[in-house]
Amino acid sequence: MQKFDEMFAQLPQDGAVQFQAQSMGGMSQLQVQGVRDHYRTYAEWLSRQSHEMMRSRREEAEMIFRRVGITFAVYGAKDEDGAGTERLIPFDLIPRIIPADEWRRMEKGLVQRVDALNRFIHDVYHEQEIVKAGVVPEAQITGNAQFRREMMGVNVPNNIYSHIAGIDIVRAPDGNGEGRYYVLEDNLRVPSGVSYMLEDRKMMMRLFPDLFSAYKVAPVMHYPDLLLETLRASAPSTTDDPTVVVLTPGMYNSAYFEHAFLAQQMGVELVEGQDLFVKDNFVYMRTTRGPRRVDVIYRRVDDDFLDPQAFRPTSTLGCAGLLKVYQAGNVTLCNAIGTGVADDKSIYPFVPKMIEFYLGEKPILSNVPTWSCRNPEDLKYVLANLKELVVKEVHGAGGYGMLVGPAASAQEIEDFRGALLARPDGYIAQPTLSLSSCPTFVERGIAPRHIDLRPFVLSGREVQMVPGGLTRVALKEGSLVVNSSQGGGTKDTWILEI
Questions:
Q1: Which pLDDT value is given to residue 14?
Q2: How far is the CA of 162 from the CAs of 257, 332, 458, in angstroms?
Q3: From what superkingdom does this record's organism come (predicted)?
Q4: Angle, helices 256-266/223-233, rounded to nearest 10 degrees
Q5: Most buried residue among 68, 207, 415, 448 by CB atoms closer than 10 A?
């Protein structure tokens, strides 16, 4: 008998589910002992399912996802003919379940954190009180690659800069051996993945409708309605009936499916830079019925490419003159230009202090302990403990530019040592957490795989979100990297309503 301590407990020390492999071709038998209460009904249901049934459901899901076109472009990857590759993000059939009380606390923590981050960005581009108070060093802001001097003194509707935030959450043991949620990363520029959250839920309801009778799962399919409400609430005061568009870099962008999906779900136009133009200090889009003024742009284009007159002159992805219209308050960009100054990994360690500074509150959600390699003492510790740490580039994303010490070769560690010594201010380090895992249907049956969670927080006239988010799963055994670009998959996330 082989024991998987985490199976339906989601923490190593919580586990007590045993996994009995059957050689007769049936689904492996789960002997349910010590399963966390909110997983018990599901574990009992799963124990009655055959391996063949689960495999056929997975194949059905893959067929539907491929037919609908739910793909992810992998940058740098080539097929045998040298062409760029697109692939499905693997979808796991076994949901991640979170009880209502855990979600309520997480939700409060997310609202608190995003509120403080928006206040910080406003402060950065106005009075910089947090710098004057000595809480955040000025060099951490003005020396940040995402800091945009063009935004100094610019007022935005409701003082909201990050209208759509994706906050990455992990669950790991605290000092007392209990499970605790930590914020791993703040994504405030153009966070992606929400379309997969919605499609995963739709697929689970299609494949296993009976489970949604056994469980009272909080709904998520109204997210596009909340998103449109948030975008409309962010419109400039120049209109009472705002026109909203989604700005995409185009079909070759890795998240193009999501751009098109969200535009379709909201009932708004999907546009590219060439569809927009500036006239008389307003932005218009070209339509078959003539120009139409645009009031809110949900942009999925990075700052550098938004306006060739203000940023990168060679960009063909944006709209010439857009920045001046934005500065004049005649169009709203969601998210705002310069928002990235707050989601740089070198700023992340200061977020708990931001919460106390702006809100006068203690953080509800904790950060992961972090060493900033720009600090000599932190650098000394990191260099001495590279084998035990996770080291990340401060501007890195997608799982690239990082070292997972325990899984790295001696050569990889030495290469990273050289990079740290050459440019210490470009890196942070964190401990290798015992991330929670969740039962996952893999080729050999059911096995634990590490997971994280990305809730999507919407800030308009109020802060709101759908219950849950996108659970990402590291499909490679033992891996802690859940990013889609690194071969990670996704799960449906069930927040229980009671």
A1: 31
A2: 22, 12, 8
A3: Bacteria
A4: 80
A5: 448
Distance CA 184, CA 170 (A): 6
Dump pLDDT digits (tens) for 180-207: 899 999 999 999 999 999 999 999 999 9
Backbone angles phi, psi at 312, to 5 degrees: -85, 115
Q: What is the mean pLDDT of residues 333-360?
A: 95
Q: Which pairs from 383-386 meet CB under 8 Å and 24+ separation?
A: 383/417, 383/420, 383/421, 386/413, 386/416, 386/417
- Reply yes or no on whether the pLDDT at 112 is more than 80: yes
- Conformational region of residue 250, where left means phi above 0, alpha means psi within -120 to 50, and beta covers everything else: left
pLDDT for residue 494 is more than 80 = yes
Least confident window among 239-248, 269-278, 307-316, 439-448: 439-448
Residue 356 in domain: no
Domain at 374, CATH number: 3.30.1490.270
Cβ partners under 8 Å of residue 24, min gap 6: none
Strands 389-393 and 276-279: unpaired
CA distance 344 to 392: 11
Count structural domains, the chain: 1
Residue 359 included in any domain? no
Which residues are CB-contacts of 142 (< 8 A; sequence separation ≥ 6)?
none
Alpha-carbon distance values, 435 to 33, 277, 358 (Å) = 22, 48, 31
Q: How far apart are CA 440 and CA 7, in angstroms?
A: 9
What is the layout of strands, in order, in the sheet containing 2-3?
Answer: 2-3, 18-20, 29-31
* 360-379 average pLDDT score: 93
Phi then psi for residue 294, to 5 deg, are -110, 135
Residue 70: predicted pLDDT: 76
| Alpha-carbon torsion angle 255, 261, 264, 270, nearest 10 | 10
Going along 191-320, which residue ranges are E strands?
A: 244-247, 269-271, 276-279, 282-285, 292-294, 296-299
User: CB–CB of 286/308 below 8 Å?
Assistant: no
State residue 452's pLDDT score: 92
Q: How far apart are CA 446 and CA 21, in angstroms?
A: 10
Q: What is the C-alpha separation between 219 and 197, in angstroms, rounded?
A: 11
Cα–Cα distance for residue pair 481/485, rounded to 1 Å = 10
Look at residue 80 and tell me whether its pLDDT is greater than 50. no
Range of the domain at 384: 369-431
Identity (one letter) of the amino acid at 281?
Answer: N
| 275 within a domain of the structure (yes/no) | no
Residues 415-437 have pLDDT tens digits of 889 989 999 888 999 888 777 88
The answer as to whether 383 is a domain residue is yes
Q: Quick one: pLDDT at residue 436?
A: 82
Strands (E), 114-267: 164-173, 179-187, 244-247
303-312 in b/e burial notation, b at 16+ Cβ within 10 A? bbbbbbebbe
